[in-house]
Amino acid sequence: MKYISDELNKIRETGLYRELKVIGNAQDSHIEIEGKTFLSFCSNNYLGLANNPSVVKAVKDAVEEYGWGAGASRLVSGNMTLHETLENVISRFKGKEAALVFPTGYMANLGAISSLVSKGDLVICDKLNHASIIDGCRLSGADFRVYAHCDMEKLENILRKSSRYNRKLIVTDSVFSMDGDLAPLPDIVRIADKYKAMVMVDEAHGTGVFGRNGRGVVEHFNLNNEIDIVMGTLSKAIGSLGGYVTGDNDLINYLRNKARSFMYTTALPPAVCAASIAAINLIKRDPSIRESLWHNVRFINDNLKSLDFNVISSESPIIPILIGDAQKAVDMSKSLYERGILIPAIRPPTVPVNSSRLRMTVMSTHTKEDLEILLEVLSEVQNL
Ligand SMILES: *Cc1c(COP(=O)(O)O)cnc(C)c1O
Which one of 14, 27, 213, 379 has the fewest beta carbons within 10 angstroms of its own beta carbon? Predict the structure, then answer.
């Protein structure tokens, strides 16, 4: 077992050791760590739905009616009314024929990609795709190619030399989780069409945030009929837990029969599905929640301009400030923490060397005062 402590020492020496913080209250813009209150600017709970009263009530009611655990895989006896209702709610929300819910988004990507392509096929990814997409590609056994971030010329170059493959699949994040920018979906669709490739879009950070009805970036670009495979998670703006794939009936029936991360795992507790159902219904019913999020995003972006920060992109509620050096980013994150603000430093290997950053995320439940405090503290630590 000596290799474990050796490896740990190596991780510590390179400044990449990771530790957990313990949050002592419900998830919201203000969180408690070791009895102290912090303003959080790093949650994916963009709309504050993880602790929304009507979501919490839906969970309590569901527990009363259905108890807690699901007891078995969906395919055995774990498939309960609320799993079916949730899939109907998702497919209607997304404007697709059907949906399949997995226990997490990670498992949805693993199961979907490894079912859609295999040996003899080609799967193509953006360089900055999420780890769960990369792991799904590796697991599939298909040849795996990567193009530079959003580089459509590189994507086309790969496809131009792809005639020997049976099936071709392009997978991309819709909102890139570390840079906060959007995939050029209209170009991807056009190129995919030309080379007869399938397109799968991961809307983890898009769902509930983008598009006129909050359906995601696919809606934002008006491409719902052009993109056949849309994946997402229920754990970010939806504030709950679970992953899903949505598309036509054949696709969903196929995944139900093929995706091992769906077949060989226990179904989500039904009350978890109740939370997602309540949250999606809120998003549909009350656009003002999404409007406050975007109002806050605009306020931060406008005011960051007057501070001398290098903001990587301002297209989404993910606002990364480029610092460069890993140690400097860690020091700044620590200074913010000492002043009651939680913004993590993102370092290699999560991002390329010399592109360490402070990754901020904005929520609809941040007040104007919260945002003003953030800006004040940012300008303070900038000059340290
Ligand atoms: C968070 C995330 C996932 C994984 O979703 P979970 O439900 O948290 O497992 C997948 N893809 C992207 C792009 C993500 O940001």
Answer: 14
